[in-house]
Design goal:
Blueprint: H1 7-21, H2 23-66
Length: 67
Amino acid sequence: MPFRLGPTELIIILLIIILLFGPGRLSKTAGEFGKGIRAFRDGLKGPEATTEAKPAEQKNDSAEGKS
């Protein structure tokens, strides 16, 4: 039997979390969580972006050297 949460249950859980932590700390924690997710995504895309950027930089360097 799968465990399903409806909108009412989600609202109750959110209200309990706000009562426990307070809105100020909750917004700070949510912001840090978002930064962590962004850093994780950048980390996943980072190696691909750097390998693609290197050949372009090498082409520019070789073109400058011929001038």
